[in-house]
Design a protein that fits this description.
The chain is 31% helix and 15% strand. It is an alpha+beta fold and 137 residues long. It starts with a helix and ends in a 7-residue tail after the last strand.
């Protein structure tokens, strides 16, 4: 059973066949699929699953904090099941591939107190951009 499925079962989330297939599609360390990609993959396993069910399930998973919504450069939102391990993202400017990265150190420590302007910072999002090996010249 996937980590996401295990977390959802532990929460007592009602596991319908539609919800299960969406969770199975999202399983993986570097998964960052759009809702349409989730629907296409889910429909291979469960042809009767509707796009609305996929969108509703993704919204619920985000609300539960089990999946993170990732937006980069105005492209379609992507869904990241790696919600419980702090990480950053590495994004290809060519094809849009997204990879999770776990650099050493605390990014909040890199923000000097005088640059916080009195804010109490609760989280940090870092996105590294470049070209993946397939897109690099």
């Amino acid at each position: 059973m996937s980590d996401l499925l295990e977390r959802l079962r532990a929460r007592g989330w009602r596991m319908t066949s539609q919800r299960r297939v969406v969770a199975e599609v999202l399983d993986g360390e570097h998964v960052h699929l759009t809702a349409d990609e989730v629907h296409a993959r889910a429909a291979r396993q469960l042809p009767e699953i509707s796009r609305a069910t996929v969108y509703n399930t993704l919204g619920e998973l985000v609300s539960l904090g089990e999946v993170i919504e990732v937006s980069t450069d105005g492209r379609a939102k992507r869904y990241d099941p790696n919600a419980h391990r702090p990480h950053h993202h590495l994004v290809c400017a060519g094809c849009g591939t997204i990879r999770d990265v776990h650099p050493a150190g605390d990014p909040l420590a890199d923000l000097p107190l005088e640059e916080r302007f009195g804010f109490t910072v609760s989280e940090v999002e870092v996105t590294y951009r470049g070209l993946c090996p397939s897109c690099a010249p």
